[in-house]
Recover the amino acids of this structure.
């Protein structure tokens, strides 16, 4: 269609994200015919690469996806490289000339997507120059994709946003939260609002508590320098986890438009009750840091490269959130995320209340939504045990997507880039959501920054510190996913 014509300008084209995610995502769209032939990509970064070398790099990044070598090569021909230091204003002239040339060559008609896949400290500079040096076109759309982290707290994110807003309006900005591009995350709204059985039970009368687990088995790998300044709270809770919380608890939107969905999500984030963060068992948020594993084979966080050996940075967070509305006040939402946990999984467990009659000693019904790496839904119900009497046993209805189905499903970046091409902002975080999330998270950060004595440790490859279990036990709840 007309509007898929676009010139992508990728800042940070030699980086890890571009290689691992962006080129494969653009190729998948090309393979599926979702990108018209009227597209071109300019990759920019400091290194001095030729177009030929860049095209080799692009081909290398899509190696596993290639069915036809010829088709892949015609894809790679759409890529050009421009060595560029984003701080040097002269370079934007060269970039503009190349952009205008490609626009003509591929009949792109002015549509531009600027992908900022670089350190956020450059976002302000880049967007300023794009506007000042007229890389922004008059005849087509101009959209900016922004990677995380969007600031490190409310103040810095506000400063960053103000800087970007000097050159681009909110409706031109696409803040990536790749969780929002995941099939099973998008499925949450479909599942909630298309099944009367579920919709009618999605309330405080039926639900006892909600649990969200985003666990990683890996440690910090090569990202020690970044991570030690960030920690799990900023890296995972402010964005991915609070986004999932809002999708799980938002009211039914009046329609599936960007504005209506965003409005309901924001209402949840605004309703979050201030978290209580203390050093005793009254706390609603606990942190942890991985120590060496019990068998001594996996090192602890403090032994990782580029990590301060005395660091108090948290690699684990668990929390109890209260959505302070009549609808949800009595339903705790527990979240848990961390590195070097026993298993890699992203999942949601909805724990329903037991029946109120004396007929049975029933176990709570449980609905689990598996986000990744397994994708699917599991519903655990009570069932009569075969044989005499009226005894119960749990039975599980399980619908896991097959490996092939998962493999063939569009990947998050692929879906999100397509959304940008189509001008659909529904699955991107609005500034209001980002700001409100930071304000919530900042309160926890502030308390933890004052706790300078120590941090609870957990052995690598376990499900976190015991404090995370105590958090639920106090409400007579327990984590469903045991790792
Ligand atoms: P990276 O360090 O691998 O790449 C950074 C890129 O920026 C390189 O191409 C480098 O040449 C370029 N660059 C740096 N300074 C420059 C300058 N002055 N002028 C021109 N180019 C310059 O980083 P990455 O891992 O690709 O991440 C890019 C962005 O995506 C970051 O904001 C990061 O936080 C975010 N992100 C990355 C991942 C990931 O998995 N890698 C995941 C989520 C978010």
């Amino acid at each position: 269609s007309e509007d898929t014509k676009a010139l992508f300008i990728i800042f940070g084209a030699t980086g890890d994200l571009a290689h691992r995610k962006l080129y494969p995502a653009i190729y998948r769209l090309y393979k599926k015919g979702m990108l018209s032939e009227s597209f071109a990509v300019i990759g920019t970064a400091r290194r001095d690469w030729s177009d030929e070398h860049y095209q080799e790099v692009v081909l290398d990044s899509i190696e596993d996806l290639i069915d036809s070598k010829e088709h892949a090569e015609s894809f790679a021909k759409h890529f050009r490289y421009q060595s560029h230091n984003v701080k040097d204003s002269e370079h934007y002239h060269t970039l503009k000339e190349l952009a205008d040339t490609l626009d003509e060559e591929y009949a792109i008609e002015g549509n531009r997507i600027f992908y900022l896949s670089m350190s956020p400290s450059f976002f302000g500079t880049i967007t300023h120059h794009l506007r000042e040096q007229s890389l922004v076109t008059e005849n087509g759309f101009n959209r900016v994709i922004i990677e995380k982290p969007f600031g490190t707290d409310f103040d810095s994110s506000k400063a960053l946003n103000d800087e970007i807003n000097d050159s681009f309006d909110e409706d031109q900005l696409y803040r990536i939260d790749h969780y929002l591009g995941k099939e099973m995350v998008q499925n949450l709204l479909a599942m909630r609002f298309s099944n009367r059985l579920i919709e009618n039970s999605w309330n405080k009368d039926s639900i006892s508590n909600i649990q969200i687990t985003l666990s990683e088995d890996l440690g910090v790998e090569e990202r020690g320098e970044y991570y030690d300044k960030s920690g799990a709270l900023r890296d995972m809770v402010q964005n991915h986890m609070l986004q999932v919380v809002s999708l799980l608890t938002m009211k039914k939107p009046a329609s599936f438009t960007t504005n209506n969905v965003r409005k309901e999500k924001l209402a949840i984030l605004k309703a979050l009750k201030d978290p209580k963060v203390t050093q005793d068992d009254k706390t609603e948020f606990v942190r942890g840091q991985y120590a060496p594993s019990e068998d001594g084979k996996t090192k602890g966080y403090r032994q990782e490269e580029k990590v301060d050996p005395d660091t108090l940075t948290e690699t684990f967070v668990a929390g109890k959130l209260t959505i302070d509305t009549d609808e949800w006040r009595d339903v705790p939402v527990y979240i848990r995320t961390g590195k070097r946990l026993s298993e890699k999984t992203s999942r949601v467990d909805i724990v329903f209340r037991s029946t109120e009659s004396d007929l049975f000693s029933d176990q709570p019904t449980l609905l689990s939504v598996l986000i990744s790496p397994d994708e699917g839904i599991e519903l655990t119900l009570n069932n009569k045990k075969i044989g005499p009497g009226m005894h119960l046993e749990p039975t599980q209805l399980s619908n896991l997507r097959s490996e092939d189905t998962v493999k063939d499903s569009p990947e998050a970046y692929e879906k999100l880039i397509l959304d940008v091409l189509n001008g659909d902002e529904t699955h991107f975080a609005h500034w209001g959501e980002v700001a409100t999330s930071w304000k919530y998270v900042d309160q926890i950060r502030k308390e933890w920054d004052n706790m300078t004595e120590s941090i609870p440790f957990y052995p690598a490859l376990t499900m976190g510190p015991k404090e995370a279990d105590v958090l639920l036990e106090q409400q007579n709840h327990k984590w469903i996913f045991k790792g």
About this structure: Residues 224-249 form the longest helix (26 residues). The mean pLDDT is 97. Residues 50 and 81 are 6 Å apart (CA to CA).
